[in-house]
Every structure is written in structure tokens, then in C-alpha cells.
Amino acid sequence: MANHATGAPARTGSLDRTIERLREQLAGLTPFFAPMARPSDSSLEDFDARTEQVISSAFGLATEMLEAYEYAEAGDAAGLVNFPDEAPEGGDGARDAERERLNQRKRVLESCIAELEARRAGLAKKHRIGRADLIGPQVAEYMTPDVTTVQTSATLRDAGRLMQDRKVGSLLVTDDRNYVGLITDTDLARHVVATGMDPLTPVKQCMRTPLPAIACNRPILEAVRAMKDQGTRHLAVTEGTDVIGIISVSNILRYYSGVL
């Protein structure tokens, strides 16, 4: 007799299968990064066709994820998904461009997996019975424990130089007593570069406040959802009333890199 039961277990099972298919595509992208033994261009076209089919099956044809992947094939996916852009390393010319297109494909797939993982976590949270927390890695396992701070009175130029010196993408803003906000490299790009704001403007005028934060014992998937909901790629990590670290999109991608 056919089973007509519906609800969270069935939907979660469907998400499991879709996530697994996306992970397979992500793993299948790896050989294309090897310049000496990479598959042919026609193989890449076949790979793209399969990937677009999986994404459209998961999100629908009118989804930004599919649009982002199509743009990635041309190397123009920057900003279409909620993950950072990274400049290509080494090489030159056509090889740089080709590798960046592959990197953009990779980031779109990682974004798809993160989105579906968050949906699955939401279903689990909604339907679990008698369970206090979601199962999975905790934020504390993947955060960066080193916190770099900047004063509210510091300038945007000071903040940019500090990020460059410390090789970090965000700074916690302090008024000497408390952490009162967060400023990121994206904020600097939007305020200083994009709008021509005076680089001597105080940090406090451009910081994110209240401080976007997440408790250290929360599941990493909850951090993914918090970043998406709050439009940020960095969260302060707290233990009680203390800030003990920072978790960023780069940290979260370390978790998903295990599928490669």
C-alpha cells in the first residue's frame, strides 16, 4: 500500500537527496581546477548543464541561484549570492579568468548547499519534539577566536589600514567599555569607494549596530541563516555577555569544504 503521509520527515528526506546531488556536483567541479589534467571544454559544458538542472530542480527556474550560476559561467556572478568574492591568485590573463569562472561556479554551489542546509535545519527545529538544540557543528568550532577592535572615533581610513595590516575582513567597534558595533571590508567598499565618502569620516557613522552576534553554542547552520537574514557576512560570537570570537562566511565555508 502506498504511503501517503506528509510532513517534515518527507520534506527533510527530499532536501537530503537534493543536498547530496549538489554535493556531488561540487565534488565533480574539482577536476576542472587542475590545468594539467582537466577535462575538456565539452565536459565542462555537460557539467554546467547537469548543474543547472539540479539547481532548477531544487529552487525553480525563476531563482537567483540559477541566474547566479549562469552568470558564473561568464565570470559575472559577483554579488548575486550572499557569499564573498575573491580575487584570483597567481597566473595571468585567460588562465586567471578561467579559474575565476570556476571559483564563481564553486561559490554558487556552496551557496545553494548552505541555503538548503538552512531550510532543512528550519524544518528540524519546527518539528522536533523534546529537543533543546539542533544537531550539528557549533559556531565555536569554526569561529576565529582572535578579535580585532577599533575605536568609535577612528576614521574609515584607519579601519581600512587596520584590516589590511591584520589581514581581517571585519573589526569590532568599541567605545572603551563595550562593543557597540561592527564594521566590515564590505561596509568600507560601499561607503568609501562606491559613494565617495570622506575616508576621514568616523567609524561610528558607518558601523553596523546593534552588534550582529550569535551564541557560541548555536549550530553553524543557524549562523548561515542569521547572516542571510541580517545581510551580513560576519557575526560576533558570544559566550554569555562576553564576545569570544568572530565567525564569517569564510569560516562557514571551511565547514562545507569537507564535501570536496
Radius of gyration: 20 Å
Sketch the major β-sheet: 3 strands, mixed
Uncertain parts: 1-10, 77-93, 129-134
Average the pLDDT over all residues and give the rounded result: 80
**Sheet with most strands: strand arrangement:** 1-2-3
Q: Determine the strand fraction and express it as a percent band.
A: 5-15%
Number of helices: 9
Q: What gross morphology would you assign?
A: globular
Number of strands: 6
Distance between the termini: 40 Å
Order of helices and strands: HHHHHEHEEHEHEEH
Structural class: mainly alpha
Report the helical percentage: 40-55%
Structure description:
With 260 residues, this protein is mainly alpha-helical. The protein is built from nine helices and six strands, in the order αααααβαββαβαββα. It is globular, with a radius of gyration of 20 Å. The chain starts with 7 loop residues before the first helix and ends with a helix. Strands 1-2-3 form a three-stranded mixed sheet. Strands 4-5-6 form a three-stranded mixed sheet. The longest helix has 35 residues, at 93-127.
Spell out the blueprint of helices and strands.
Elements lengths: L7 H22 L11 H19 L4 H11 L18 H35 L11 H4 L6 E3 L4 H11 L3 E5 L4 E6 H10 L18 E3 L4 H11 L3 E6 L2 E7 H8 L4
Parallel strand pairs: 1-2, 4-5
Antiparallel strand pairs: 2-3, 5-6
Helix pairs in contact: 1-2, 1-4, 2-3, 3-4, 4-8
